[in-house]
Design goal:
Layout lengths: L1 H17 L4 H11 L13 H6 L2 H11 L15 H12 L23 E7 L4 E7 L8 H11 L5 H9 L3 E10 L4 E9 L5 H17 L4 H17 L4 H14 L4 H10 L3 H11 L5 E8 L5 H7 L3 H16 L3 H13 L9 H25 L1
Parallel strand pairs: 1-5
Antiparallel strand pairs: 2-4, 2-5, 3-4
Helix pairs in contact: 6-12, 7-8, 8-12, 14-16, 15-16
Length: 376
Amino acid sequence: EFYSERDVVHEERRLRTESTPTGKFQEQFDSMFWMSSPYNWPVIGWTSDLNSYTLEEAHNYFDTYYQPGNLVGVIVGDFDPEDVKPLIQSYFGRLQPSGRTVPPVVTLEMPQQAEMRMSAEVEAQPQIEVRYHTVPFNHADSFALEMLSQVLNGRTGRLYKSMVEGAEIASFARAGVDHRRYGGYFSFSAETKKDATPADLEKAWYEQIGLLQQELVADHELDKVKNQVLADAYRALESNFFIMVQVGYYEALGGWEYINDGPRNLRAVTPEDIQRVAKQYFKPENRSVATYLRKAGTSDEQAELAGLDPNIRQMVVMQLKQIQAATDVEALRQEVNQAESMRGQVPQEYLPAIDYLVKKTRERIAELEAAAAQND
């Protein structure tokens, strides 16, 4: 049973990492970026790790980390805590401490001393990612970095306006923050459009950074972004389920109180704060750059997929496999009708994916009908 489950994990790794155009290179980039931190290890381990795990090691790991002393439980709703305690006791009271102590994380990320670069050829449209080491979750600077990313993102943000709409050198361009318990980073990622190159995207990114370092973000621009962020935070409180998820997530990162304090701290960010963190963290010696060039011989289908948002692309690839394996023409026609009826109900960024899947479904229908005609 242990080895069959290990094979399942191998398959998950293959699907999530090794079978995607950039997955194995992204994993290598992560390892390069996090030089000394435990974050340089993939969550489920390298292939050699999976091959060497034993049942005894799995039991030891489980007993160390999956124990009552390392557990966080969250209950959300309108209730009296005294009424809930017996319920908690009935479900969790039987769990006994393992007697093991969770070892502290003692090896943390060292300051980066020089720019690092990685280049790879992939079966996809050329892309680039630029990362900067920043700060852990709930650090004072994390809020300014979050607001900085919001100024850049969205269809009215600076990246979309300058690279996607303006210069038309990117099919998408986004910035993001990843604040973890023991470290964090700020990233820029983009995919080329038409004849643009990753070098064009990188140059355009540094121009945007220069503006943030030299000029204060206008009050009206920052206020608009704050309103969006606070509205999103408010909407996330409308459901007990999402409150539960947030409380558990924030507690694991360092403190559940963030659900109350985070929005206030974000609202307090000033244009001067944004300019300061842009100067402090966006330095050449603090960045790592991954450049992905299109591999010779990449098919047109791969190129078409490359134009989709990376997060959506994964879903499309899975759907495409189902379409190519389908043999029921009537069921495929129903899928086309359903997809077309959804066009007015989904976010704008999903429309290219829907159009692509509809096209591929119709092509599959034509293939099946042609094969049936030959057999008649």
